[in-house]
Design a protein that fits this description.
Elements (H helix, E strand, L loop, with lengths): L1 H74 L4 H8 L3 H15 L25
Helix pairs in contact: 1-2, 1-3, 2-3
Pfam family, one: DUF2802
Keywords: Coiled coil
Protein name: DNA repair protein
């Protein structure tokens, strides 16, 4: 009987040591999982930032392509309505592009810059009206 009790105690001590060992391993695994969770969160943040940046660049590239297309259309003789409809440009931008193209082609003279006060007589007075 004593021998059986000693064997059971030895088995219990062995089982306790195994439980302690497994608990230690479980804590290590939990620690690794927490670290991996943090890494995953960091990677998700990076991916989200990169996706936002990609969308920004795609939008900027789309704008650039529209202006390139509008420039080409102006060079080929497109009118203001074509620019507005095809390139989705506001009227003021379409007018500006047409005006610039005419000036570049030499069809319209660019007025010289002058800082002489006498030249200001052609313009209405500036400032507040009383």
């Amino acid at each position: 009987l004593q021998k059986q009790m000693d064997q059971q105690r030895a088995q219990a001590r062995h089982a306790d040591k195994e439980v302690q060992k497994l608990n230690k391993q479980l804590l290590e695994v939990r620690s690794v999982v927490v670290g991996l969770g943090q890494k995953v969160t960091e990677q998700q943040d990076i991916i989200q930032h990169l996706n936002e940046r990609i969308r920004e660049l795609e939008h900027a590239d789309t704008d650039g392509r529209l202006y390139s297309r509008a420039t080409k259309m102006v060079q080929l003789g497109a009118d203001i309505n074509e620019l507005i409809e095809e390139c989705e440009l506001p009227k003021a931008e379409a007018e500006l592009m047409l005006s610039l193209q005419k000036k570049l082609a030499g069809k319209e003279k660019i007025p010289p810059l002058s800082s002489q006060p006498s030249d200001d007589s052609n313009y209405p007075p500036r400032g507040r009206r009383r």
